Amino acid sequence: MSAELFGQDRPGIVREISRALSDSVQKLQTIVESTPMSGERLFRAEADLVPPARIEFDQIRAAFEQLANDMMIDITLKAGKE
């Protein structure tokens, strides 16, 4: 399973994401870049995840949607590693 995350950069965002994903993150890559028009700092991350056993993909998706809302970021979750 993999996830792509992006949103406006801010202090502590890596800490918040790694804390939220600590039970399932296997690999986390992050980058901060400037948006073309405004120059604002955009945070992007890619994560390889190994979710806890016996949890359905729909449950994981719902948890990630809540995380995205709480952190005001966008998350794309993929069932297989692509």
Automatic annotation (TrEMBL):
Protein name per UniProt: ACT domain-containing protein
Protein species of origin: Candidatus Nitronereus thalassa
